[in-house]
Amino acid sequence: MNVKLAPIIWLGDSRDIIRSGPVKAKQSAGEELFRLQIGSEPLHWRVMKSVGRGVREIKISEGGQYRVFYVTRRKEGFVVLHACEKKTQRTGKTDIEQCKQRLKMI
What we know:
The protein has helices spanning 14-19, 23-37, 93-105; strands spanning 8-10, 45-47, 55-61, 65-74, 77-86.
Protein backbone atom coordinates (compact mmCIF):
# COMPACT_ATOMS: atom_id res chain seq x y z
CA MET A 1 0.00 0.00 0.00
CA ASN A 2 1.43 3.34 -1.05
CA VAL A 3 0.20 6.23 1.13
CA LYS A 4 1.26 9.78 0.40
CA LEU A 5 1.98 11.61 3.65
CA ALA A 6 1.07 15.27 3.97
CA PRO A 7 4.15 17.31 4.88
CA ILE A 8 4.57 18.85 8.32
CA ILE A 9 6.05 22.34 8.43
CA TRP A 10 7.67 23.17 11.76
CA LEU A 11 7.91 26.77 12.99
CA GLY A 12 10.39 28.02 15.55
CA ASP A 13 11.71 25.52 18.07
CA SER A 14 8.57 23.35 18.17
CA ARG A 15 10.30 20.28 16.71
CA ASP A 16 13.20 20.63 19.20
CA ILE A 17 10.76 20.89 22.12
CA ILE A 18 9.06 17.64 21.11
CA ARG A 19 12.39 15.91 20.56
CA SER A 20 13.64 16.95 24.01
CA GLY A 21 10.69 15.36 25.82
CA PRO A 22 10.44 11.88 27.34
CA VAL A 23 10.45 8.92 24.93
CA LYS A 24 6.76 8.09 25.48
CA ALA A 25 5.72 11.71 24.86
CA LYS A 26 7.76 11.79 21.62
CA GLN A 27 6.17 8.53 20.48
CA SER A 28 2.68 9.79 21.25
CA ALA A 29 3.34 13.08 19.44
CA GLY A 30 4.68 11.17 16.44
CA GLU A 31 1.63 8.91 16.35
CA GLU A 32 -0.78 11.83 16.56
CA LEU A 33 1.05 13.77 13.83
CA PHE A 34 1.19 10.65 11.64
CA ARG A 35 -2.60 10.38 11.91
CA LEU A 36 -2.80 13.92 10.52
CA GLN A 37 -0.42 13.07 7.70
CA ILE A 38 -2.54 10.15 6.51
CA GLY A 39 -5.74 12.20 6.57
CA SER A 40 -7.15 11.09 9.92
CA GLU A 41 -7.83 13.02 13.12
CA PRO A 42 -5.54 12.88 16.15
CA LEU A 43 -7.06 10.92 19.03
CA HIS A 44 -6.69 13.68 21.63
CA TRP A 45 -7.21 17.20 20.32
CA ARG A 46 -9.34 20.31 20.67
CA VAL A 47 -9.99 23.50 18.74
CA MET A 48 -8.02 26.53 19.96
CA LYS A 49 -10.27 29.49 19.15
CA SER A 50 -8.25 31.60 21.59
CA VAL A 51 -5.29 31.37 19.17
CA GLY A 52 -7.08 31.76 15.87
CA ARG A 53 -9.18 30.21 13.15
CA GLY A 54 -8.15 26.71 12.11
CA VAL A 55 -5.77 26.18 15.04
CA ARG A 56 -5.95 22.94 17.00
CA GLU A 57 -4.12 21.57 20.00
CA ILE A 58 -2.96 17.97 20.34
CA LYS A 59 -2.94 16.82 23.96
CA ILE A 60 -0.19 14.44 25.05
CA SER A 61 -0.21 12.92 28.54
CA GLU A 62 2.88 10.75 28.63
CA GLY A 63 5.59 11.48 31.20
CA GLY A 64 4.02 14.91 31.75
CA GLN A 65 1.56 17.13 29.92
CA TYR A 66 2.61 18.29 26.46
CA ARG A 67 0.79 20.25 23.78
CA VAL A 68 1.35 20.62 20.04
CA PHE A 69 -0.45 23.52 18.36
CA TYR A 70 -1.00 23.23 14.63
CA VAL A 71 -2.97 24.76 11.80
CA THR A 72 -5.37 22.40 10.08
CA ARG A 73 -4.53 21.14 6.64
CA ARG A 74 -3.26 23.69 4.16
CA LYS A 75 -2.30 22.86 0.60
CA GLU A 76 1.40 22.84 1.55
CA GLY A 77 0.76 20.54 4.55
CA PHE A 78 0.23 20.97 8.27
CA VAL A 79 1.94 23.80 10.10
CA VAL A 80 3.08 23.15 13.67
CA LEU A 81 3.02 26.57 15.28
CA HIS A 82 4.29 25.70 18.74
CA ALA A 83 4.89 22.88 21.21
CA CYS A 84 5.23 23.09 24.96
CA GLU A 85 5.21 21.22 28.24
CA LYS A 86 2.32 22.24 30.47
CA LYS A 87 3.05 22.79 34.14
CA THR A 88 -0.40 24.12 35.13
CA GLN A 89 -4.06 23.45 34.27
CA ARG A 90 -4.30 26.40 31.88
CA THR A 91 -2.21 26.90 28.77
CA GLY A 92 0.29 29.68 29.50
CA LYS A 93 -0.28 33.16 28.09
CA THR A 94 3.20 33.18 26.58
CA ASP A 95 2.43 29.92 24.74
CA ILE A 96 -0.83 31.37 23.38
CA GLU A 97 0.94 34.57 22.30
CA GLN A 98 3.73 32.58 20.63
CA CYS A 99 1.10 30.68 18.63
CA LYS A 100 -0.67 33.88 17.62
CA GLN A 101 2.57 35.47 16.42
CA ARG A 102 3.53 32.42 14.37
CA LEU A 103 0.01 32.19 12.94
CA LYS A 104 0.39 35.76 11.67
CA MET A 105 3.63 34.72 9.93
CA ILE A 106 1.80 32.24 7.75
